[in-house]
UniProtKB/TrEMBL annotation:
GO biological process: one example: ribosomal small subunit assembly
Function recorded in the entry: Required for maturation of 30S ribosomal subunits.
Gene of this entry: rimP
Protein name in the entry: Ribosome maturation factor RimP
Species annotation: Lactobacillus crispatus
CC terms in the record's Gene Ontology section: cytosol
Subcellular location: Cytoplasm
Primary localization: cytoplasm
Superkingdom of origin organism: Bacteria
Keywords: Cytoplasm, Ribosome biogenesis
Keyword Transferase: no
All copies of domain Ribosome maturation factor RimP C-terminal, residue ranges: 89-158
Amino acid sequence: MSKVIDSVRPVVETIIDEHGDMLVDMEYVKEKGQNYLRIYVDRQPNGIDIDEIAALSELVSEKLDALDPDPLPDLYVLELSSPGAERPIKTKADWEKALNDYIHVGLYQKIENKKMYEGTLKSYNDDEVVLEIKDKTRRKTLTVPRKLIANIRFAIEF
């Protein structure tokens, strides 16, 4: 299914870039017998609104329908949406935006008897991320090796 993404990504990216928006992620999946092409878009710095998503959806749909040969020969549902407030951190832009922001980190193995942490991302590099976390009534710094991170995403602090 990544062949579909590889063939439509340049077309989709061009449309999104021309509107000053940012392609966050794409997926082509089959769920309950139905194919879905999901495209997640955002706009910096304040996010994307529903009117922009609707306009992009129409443009992307028209452009994909006009491609020859058709990279999506099977019936599919096109879904364009915002990635949401708690989206995964994947791209360089995501990492830059996450710096000094509140994030959630899930681990493959425990550090200090826990497999999940939430805190403020203080720094990152290819080898590790540094979080400022709350530990009961005090704040402390936790360094997490990148190879132990199963998932990482933006989080909402309560």
